[in-house]
Amino acid sequence: MKRLYRSRKDRMIGGILGGMGKRYKMDSSLLRIITVILMLLTGIVPFFIGYLIAWIIIPLDPTKK
Asked: Nearest 10 degrees: CA dihedral of 15, 16, 19, 21?
């Protein structure tokens, strides 16, 4: 089973969406656009808190490539 890691290379802030893109074989730019749209529709604070929690919980990619 594949694990979710924060990306070391494909990162804007914390590498969370870059890691999700790699894990689910999606373009990370598309995930970023979807995240911004959902954030604007539902509220910035819940997404910000969720992003911070994910940043703390999801480990950094162990490969040094």
From this structure: -110
Task: State both tokens at 48.
Answer: 């910000």
Q: How many CB atoms lie within 10 A of CB 35?
A: 16
37: its two tokens = 């749209």
> What number of other Cβ atoms are within 10 A of residue 20's Cβ?
21
Contact yes or no for 7/19 (Cβ under 8 A): yes
> Which has the closest alpha carbon to 11: 24, 22, 25?
22
Q: Read off the tokens for 62.
A: 């162990």
Q: List pLDDT tens digits, range 5-50.
A: 898 888 888 889 999 999 999 999 999 999 999 999 988 898 889 8
Predicted model pTM? 0.79
